[in-house]
Specification:
102 residues; mainly alpha; 0% strand; elongated
């Protein structure tokens, strides 16, 4: 499946709004099965566009949570601590560099 830059941008934008790949296919008018296959193919342009949108949305939410934590929100502070622990865990699992600066 060949996708235009415009289609890839739309996939990324819709993923950032938490739409599923199936919903994105319907909204964009793309074949559902073909788009699902493309998104499931690691490093394909559709896969990267979908992940980029999804991760940018998560980053935006995390930034808001961090700002709320800095402002003194206890629930947000607990979430930030949990996110920091998860980050450390994944660094250790993926690189063996727990606690080291990069």
């Amino acid at each position: 499946m060949t996708l235009t830059e415009s289609q890839l941008e739309e996939i990324s934008e819709l993923a950032s709004l938490f739409f599923s790949p199936q919903d994105i296919a319907i909204i964009t008018g793309l074949d559902v099965d073909q788009l699902l296959e493309e998104i499931a193919t690691e490093q394909s342009s559709a896969n990267l566009a979908y992940l980029r949108g999804k991760l940018k949305a998560r980053a935006s939410v995390r930034k808001t949570i961090k700002n709320l934590a800095i402002q003194g929100s206890s629930p947000a502070q607990n979430l930030v601590l949990k996110m920091m622990e998860e980050q450390d865990y994944h660094e250790e699992i993926n690189t063996g560099r727990y606690g080291k600066t990069y």
